[in-house]
Amino acid sequence: MFKNMLVLIPSERPVRPVVDGSISLALACSARISALAIGYESANIPIAAFVSPATPIIFEEERLRAMERAETAVTVFENEVRTTSLTFTCRTISAIPAEAVPFASAAARLHDLTIVSQPDFERSTFDNDLSTEVLFQSGRPVLFIPHTFRGPLSPRRVGICWDGSRLASRALRDARPLLKNAEAITIITIDDTENISDEAGPERLVLHLARAALSATVVKVCAQHSEIQPTLLSVAADQRLDLLVMGGYGHSRFQERLIGGVTRRMLQCMPLPTLMSH
Known about the structure:
CATH topology of the largest domain: Rossmann fold
CATH class of the largest domain: Alpha Beta
Number of helices: 9
Distance between the termini: 20 Å
Radius of gyration: 20 Å
Strand order of the largest sheet: 3-2-1-4-5-10-9-6-7-8
Order of helices and strands: EHEHEHEHEEHEHEHEHHE
Number of domains: 2
CATH superfamily of the largest domain: HUPs
């Protein structure tokens, strides 16, 4: 079971979805939860400012504004978590984006699960980049909470996106603590027998889970590459799933941006919480 969770509280986007999702999941898992809010300092200080006697003042004012944003964001979490019995900590820092990524990724490595907000690619904010960078750099699973999420999160109907790949296997392993309490597990696979080895096929996965006393059913669907993401979401709706589990970024981020990819499309349109591993 996840016993040590980290939640990244966005400082430039709405915080309520990730606050509600993280606290309710921590309660369901009886986990300790740590909140981290990062206020981003601008890296675009005018060159003329560097030769001005007021330069230290400019940088200090920028740092204070960043800290104020972080503290405002984490206060929402703190006010909510204090009404529960959870053990928690709150941290706020200010940093330029280049410093924020390694800091947050290092923190995530010492937690069982990191909970973040779904990126909003329509808005220009480093909160979007931080969540995906932590997925790449932490080596730990990341749970994305949709920005439309409302209410408590206690996964009971879980969907596993399965293609027999290393990333799918990694995500499955990382999600095992949540599978133990699931009432229904659905294995969703694209019916493409040429790309999935029989040794790692969905039927073998059912047997693998059964050995751990986990019952699962298989849903096979046909879809072209460009149709995979909407097909997965259609199955999720039909099965009334409240959590998806999948490998993240099977292709490079450049390829995903250039030609599109399942992960990027999922992050753009994510109606339910999704656990990803890379």
